[in-house]
Amino acid sequence: MEHVYASMDLGSDSIKLVVCELYQNHLNLLAATSVPSRGIKKGLIIDPELAKKSVLLAFKQIEDMLGIRIKKVIANIPNHMAEYKIIKGESDISGDLITSKDMTNSYKAGIRVNLMPNEEFVTVVPIDFKINGKTVMKDPKGFPGKKLMGRAMMVTTPKKNVYSVASIIESLGIEIVDISVGSIGDINCFRTENLDKSISAVINIGSDITTVSLYNKSIPAITKVIGAGGKDIDKDLAYMYKIDVLEARKIKESFALAHKKNADIADVYETVNVDNVKIKINQVSASEVVMSRINEILTLAKNELNDLTNKPIQYIIVTGGTSNMLDFENCLHDVFPASASKGSVKLVGVRNNKYSTAIGNIIYFLNTLKLKGMNYSMLSEEDMDELSSPRENTNDDTMLGKVFGYFFGE
């Protein structure tokens, strides 16, 4: 076992916490959990005490799985009102060869100049570097030069977005080693060489909201938030059949299809409505309700993308918990051209798109470490020894051996 990393995503419907180990440039899943969230609405924390209890439960479940206490984590910050600014700067190279410190110094001045008083710095995504005003490359570390000019995308959010999340996690005695936003996590979860050369987009359909993020060569450019998500499907089913919202969610998750094309009219779901009357719902009818809302959300996302850019988007990836529904791809074909596809999380053991942000933030964190030439683990040697020791009642489904066949950065 080499290095261990934990990442948390606080959503309106659930808190996702993932712990992975990096071993020989591969990520292995150690544990993952998703617990119902409370005190969070439309991606923002509205009741810190309730949210704190949900976060605590997620950490407790992970710690029960691993037998050790998680003390450090990467935290995801709400995308609401996130700003993306290209910054530039130049610095003298301190030695004969360019170091990671020189790279950081090259755009550090740009961060200070462009950071507004009401904003909190989240992260900076390097774009490229120019050596001595001539040679341009993405990673100039180890090359000779006298001056280095750097370009990067700086990501900021309102201060309250950061502090609301940080205060809850840190109140539990857990250190936040890095923060990120969903647009960065999602693109890194699905990142490929083709995306690195293209204009692309990621649509994340969450519970209360849907985020639409535009990228240029995998660099985030802008994110828009749509006030519609998976819970609207629950409400539609509840209204249509006069049933409880929890029963409607059960129908959505275990019976209905995302699209009516392959639904079976002979397949029937029996339940009791709010008037205590027994009713039968056929799969075609339920799937039509689901399909109508999903297509509406995708159409809203498509309109946002049309407003964001007039350039052709080569790749559109759709993720989030709703995208896990059977036949979701048929809805994509109704609304988008062939360039749109459903994301596929490659981490064995959590093949569920609701984890894309948490997993992608770990990959981004590792890429940042690599660029800086740093070696880091969130667990101490004592913790690693304890984690590696054989224990009774170990659940193999949540431990080592589930290989994420995905080199970070690819």
Provide key terms for this protein.
alpha+beta; Actin, Chain A, domain 4; disordered C terminus; 410 residues; Dna Ligase, domain 1; six-stranded mixed beta sheet; 33% helix; five-stranded mixed beta sheet; 19 strands; 10 helices
Reconstruct the topology from this structure.
Elements: E1 3-10, E2 14-23, E3 26-36, E4 40-41, E5 44-45, H1 48-66, E6 72-77, E7 83-92, H2 100-114, E8 119-131, E9 135-137, E10 147-158, H3 159-171, E11 175-181, H4 182-189, E12 199-205, E13 210-216, E14 219-226, H5 230-241, H6 245-254, E15 268-272, E16 278-282, H7 283-308, E17 315-319, H8 328-335, E18 340-342, H9 356-372, H10 381-388, E19 402-404
Parallel strand pairs: 1-6, 6-11, 12-17, 17-18
Antiparallel strand pairs: 1-2, 2-3, 3-19, 4-5, 7-10, 8-9, 8-10, 12-13, 13-14, 15-16
Helix pairs in contact: 4-9, 5-6, 5-7, 7-8
Describe the structure.
41% of the residues are buried. It is built from ten helices and 19 strands. The chain has 410 residues and is of the alpha+beta class. Helices cover 33% and strands 31% of the residues. The C terminus is likely disordered. The protein is globular and about 80 Å long. The strands form five sheets. A six-stranded mixed beta sheet has the order 11-6-1-2-3-19, with helices on both faces. A five-stranded mixed beta sheet has the order 14-13-12-17-18, sandwiched between helices. Strands 7-10-8-9 form a four-stranded antiparallel beta sheet. Strand 8 and strand 9 form a beta hairpin. The two termini are 22 Å apart. Among the domains are: 76 residues, Dna Ligase, domain 1 (2-Layer Sandwich), CATH 3.30.1490; 55 residues, Actin, Chain A, domain 4, CATH 3.90.640.
